[in-house]
Queue: 3 jobs
Job 1
Amino acid sequence: MSSLRGDVKALLSQYNEAYLRIHGETILEEAITFARNRLTSVISDLKPPLSMAVSLALETSLCRRMRSCCQENTSPSTKRTQHEMMPY
C-alpha cells in the first residue's frame, strides 16, 4: 500500500475496486478505509478532472454509480460507459 500513497489514479482505482468485495473480506474493507483517508487528504491538491473523479468516488463509489446508471437507463443508447463516469 505504500506505493499507492503517491499515485492518486491507482489509489482511486483501488478504492473503486475494493467496493466489489463480499461481506467479510476484511482486507478489502481495510483497503477502502486506507484509500478513502488518503484520497480525502489529497483532494484539495488535485486539479480537474482528477479532483472531480475523486470527489465523485468519495461521494458514491463507481460500482454503485454504474449499478444505479444501468438500472435507471435500460436503453443501450442512454447508458454511460465506465470511461464517461471516470473523467480522468
Job 2
Amino acid sequence: MDAVTKLASQRAVVVFSKSSCCMSHTINRLFIDLGVNPSVHELDEDPRGREMERALAKLLGRNQAVPAVFIGGKLVGSTDKIMSLHMSGNPAPMLRNAGAMWL
C-alpha cells in the first residue's frame, strides 16, 4: 500500500495499469488526448506489481485493479468512473486543480 500511495502522490495524474489491458490503454489515451501527461505504472513490468495490484484492488473494492487513476494524489477510480467524468465534462476542473492541465 505504501508503494501505491508514494507513487500516486508524485505526479498530478498517475495511472496504474497493465501493458496488456485495453482499458488501461484507453484511459491513458484519453488523458493524452486531453493534453495531460500521466505518469503510467505498468504493474506487469514492476517487480512489486503483484503487491501493488492487491493494494489497488482493496482500495477500489473490486477484483479488477487496473486501470486505477489518481488525480492530485487522490484515488478517482477505474475506467467506469473516469469515462463517466469525461462524458459529463467534469475531469477538466479536477485536472486543472491538480496542475495537470492549464486550459
Job 3
Amino acid sequence: PSSHPPSQFGKTKEFLFSPNDSAADIAKHVYDNWPMDWEEEQVSSPNILRLIYQGRFLHGNVTLGALKLPLGRSTVMHLVARETLPEPNSQGQRNREKTGESNCCVIL
C-alpha cells in the first residue's frame, strides 16, 4: 500500500502560461484560481506570492520567455508567500520567517 504522509508542503498544480507572462501575472493567476486542496496555504493578496525557479526568486517583471524555458514542456516552480524579497546582502536573517511553500507546476 502506498500511503503518503500528510504534508503541508509540496502540493502541485498545473497551470498553463505563455512566454509573455511575467512572474507577477503568474502569481495573480494562481491567486485568482487558487486550488481547493491548497486551502491551508491561502494567502490574502497576490502581491505576497513569489515564484522561485531553480532556487532563485523571480522579480515580478521577469517573463517566462526571458527565462528561456523549453516551450511545450512542464516546468516546476515553487510558490511561496513572502512579504518582501530577501535582500542579497541580508545574512539569512529572514530565514526565520515561516513560509508555506507550494509547488507550482507551470506549463508553457
